[in-house]
Amino acid sequence: MDKNKKSKRSSFEIKNKKIKFAGVHLIAEFWDGEIIEDSKKIEKILIGAAKAAKNTPLKIAVHKFNPQGITGVVLLAESHISLHSWPEFNYLAVDIFTCGENTFPYKALGYLKKKFKPKKIEVKEIKRGKSF
Amino acid sequence: MILDLYNCDPKIIRSKKKILEYIDKICDLIKIKKYGKAMIKRFGETSSWGKGYSFFQFITESSISGHFLEPENIAYLNIFSYKPFNEKIAVDFSQKFFKAKKFKKQVIFH
Q1: Rounded CA gap, B91 and B19, in Å?
Q2: Which fold has domain A20-128?
Q3: CA distance B17 to chain A (A)
Q4: B37: burial class by Cβ within 10 Å (0-12, 13-18, 19+)?
Q5: pLDDT per residue over B32-86, tens digit each?
Q6: What span, in angstroms and rounded, lies between the C-alpha atoms of A12 and B64?
Q7: Choosing among A8, A39, A56, which should be mutated to test the B contact, i.e. which has the most B CBs within 10 A?
Q8: Looking at the predicted complex, does its ipTM rise above 0.90?
Q9: What positions of A carry a catalytic annotation?
């Protein structure tokens, strides 16, 4: 990633039928999937998820907890994707927040499902910045 | 907790210093512990729309993040903590800090 690259954030409003909103926030829970504790692999997965959603990755950070658990985030020109794992519960919390018309958060979710292969998933979709 | 703040003070959401101050204060106030420094980036400098700051702060209890859309003066804040916190305190403080005239919050329990 070019740190000095000036990136344009995606356009503000998406029109979905008659509702205007800034972006889609997916909050997903993965249960009983593959446990990935390797920081490099998590970085690669975050970048892959961003690309799957047609997002522009800008900055990435991954932190491994002791003795287990990992947190990672990729800041995007279109918001962020983050992962928080609790291997002791075989649980992964996934956060995908993307703004703009030309981003595809469900593609990122699909990519993450392929990587982590959870047996159980719960997803909540929130439209952010809905007009009053 | 997901908090969208509308009609924020334009000066505050355009100030990196104030955003970093917010991160410090909200963490202290709701008793969550910062882990490392905040990641903060600015986007869209050459654009007449869509520019603003984004931040991400690791906390020992998970993370907080925020995205600020300057042309619309909107702040999108996310507090994700496995440790319970007083959401009313967090909302009141955030609204006052950014001087938002309207807000919308959602609390999701995992």
Answers
A1: 15
A2: S-adenosylmethionine decarboxylase (3.60.90)
A3: 19
A4: exposed
A5: 999 889 999 887 665 444 689 999 999 988 899 999 989 889 999 999 988 889 9
A6: 22
A7: A8
A8: no
A9: 79, 84, 99
**CATH number, residue B41:** 3.60.90.10
Q: Using alpha carbons, select from A101, A15, A60 the residue that is nearest to residue B50.
A: A101
* Tens digit of each residue's pLDDT (9 = 90 or more) over A6-54: 555 444 445 555 556 778 999 999 999 999 999 999 999 999 999 999 9
Are A97 and B67 spatial neighbours (Cβ–Cβ below 8 Å)?
yes
Contact between B1 and B33 (Cβ < 8 Å):
no
Range of the domain at B102: 2-106
Interface membership of B37 toward A (CB under 8 Å): no
Q: Which residue of B has its CA nearest to A129?
A: B4
Q: Count of domains in chain B? A: 1
**Amino acid found at B96:** K
Across the strands, what pairs with B57?
B64
Asked if residues B63 and B39 have their Cβ atoms less than 8 Å apart, the reply is: no
pTM listed for this prediction: 0.82
Nearest by CB to residue A93, choosing from B52, B106, B110, is B110
